[in-house]
Amino acid sequence: MKLVAIVGTNSDRSTNRKLLQFMAKHFKDQADIEVLEIKDIPAFNEPEDRKAPAEMVTFSEKLVAADGVIIATPEYNHSIPAPLKSILEWISYTSRALINKPTMVVGASLGTLGSSRAQAHLRQILDAPELKARVMPGNEFLLGHSEQAFDASGQLVYEDKVAELDEDFTEFLTFVKMTNQLVAEHQLNTEQKRQFSWETAAE
Fold first, then answer.
1. Number of folded domains in the chain?
2. Where in the numbering of this chain does the NADPH-dependent FMN reductase-like domain appear (predicted)?
3. Which residues contact 128 (CB under 8 A, 6 or more apart)?
4. Which CATH number goes with the domain that contains 33?
């Protein structure tokens, strides 16, 4: 299974990046996870020609090709960082690459709440008609006190959180398979309806 994981911040010292890098290594036998950065993509500016910059085109192509998406967000003032919101604006305005895409939301923060309010806000945004991601329900991975959560090799040291992440990721893989199957069946049924004609049916 091919997944992409979005670092939802442009901070060079982000523990959300460490979380996704840990996941890519920890789950390498279950999925190929490519960690995507957003820090080099220009801020959204609503271009008149509705064309995204080259960096954003490449980014969107990777989303489209992936079986599923993981987004890791910190929490800034009870919400997601501006650079992550900018990326989502680019996607909704141009490629719409997240429509029907199975998506897992995770987050890390230096405090105790583990980006819970930002994750709730992100789920609302991803439900917008131009994004319409298929976000895994009933699942919230919150990594608090994240500055102390990783050792020098990038290993997540909180054993209870590793166990929780293992369970959440297993559920996500099932969610990806089921969602993509349902979407494929829906698209097939829609295409068959488009091609239906009474003349053919009467033969």
1. 1
2. 1-147
3. 92
4. 3.40.50.360
What range defines the domain where residue 142 resides? 2-202
Q: Check residue 112 and give its pLDDT.
A: 82
The Cα diameter of the chain in Å comes to: 71
Beta bridge partners of 106: 72, 141
Rounded to 5 degrees, φ, ψ at 15 are -80, -15
Who contacts 36 (Cβ-Cβ below 8 Å, separation ≥6)?
4, 5, 6, 7, 59, 62
- Other C-beta atoms lying within 10 Å of the C-beta of residue 71: 28
Judge whether 31 and 3 are in contact, CB under 8 Å: yes
Tokens of 108: 């890390």
Only one residue has tokens 């959560």, namely 149
Token pair belonging to 198: 């009474």
Q: Kindly state the average pLDDT of the residues 31-50.
A: 94
d(CA 92, CA 109): 27
Gap between the Cα atoms of 15 and 1, Å rounded: 25
Reported as a single tens digit per residue, the pLDDT across 105-130 is: 999 998 888 799 999 999 999 999 99
**pLDDT at site 196:** 47
